[in-house]
Design brief:
globular, mainly alpha, single chain
Length: 289
Amino acid sequence: MAVTVILALAAALSNAINLLAQHSASIGAPEHKKGWRLVGYLLRHPLWLLGWLAAVAGFGFQALALQNGQLSVVQPLLVTELVFVLVLRRLWIRQQVAHAAWISALVVCLSLAVFLSVSQPHGGHPTPTASAWVSALLTFGAIITGLVALGRTGSPVRRAALFATATSLTWALMAAFIKATTDTLSHGGIAAMLTHWPVYALAASGVAGTLLQQAALHVGPLSISQPLIVVVDPVASIVLSVWLFDDRFTNSPIKIAIAVVSFALMVVGVIGLSRAAPADLDPSRPVRL
């Protein structure tokens, strides 16, 4: 499990570097750079290229983590991306960060550690049955479609919440496809991977998840969409880990109760961190209390 944890944390750090690098390059572009000129400018910007390298590394680390470990371990650990972003804001961009943000980050890390320790994810198998795939895909597909349909109307807050939830469910499915694809790749090579459907479902879910995430960020406030995108993914991934890969958890009622409480505290920490973190990347901004 130690290797899985290290790889998942490396993926979270890479995702954080990607986020800050590409965002820094985008907001630093001259005002007259628009459309294709902006694209050309970004493609030549070292920070933008660094962001893409970090994104590729993050995907690779996540794939390796999923190949070596359980979905129920890897996806919750990716929540630490928010913590890494906060640390990078302070050390890289030299932003002043509010004490409330650090406290929230500490709550996220401690509650996540307690959750994984007491829930004791174990067991499982790398290859889901066909019936499990069909039932999971039909159920998740129906829920995602319903959320998108409901998100077409209503207030900005409601629409952002619905699209963000659909995004997280799609990311959870994508993680399951990554795990299935890497298992096929490791056992049969590239030829076998290309003759099995999960690799194509992986590509489709990546496109769909990106579009849904952009919709969530566009239609409503970030304070609503970001926490939901972050916390719904691990919940859905835990469901899929049991449904598809037969992951097991502790049988102790006391430990289950502690795990539930610690996960709830992690959600509180994520919400607090999303609201207390600096609103932009300007290092001259004062600390927001």
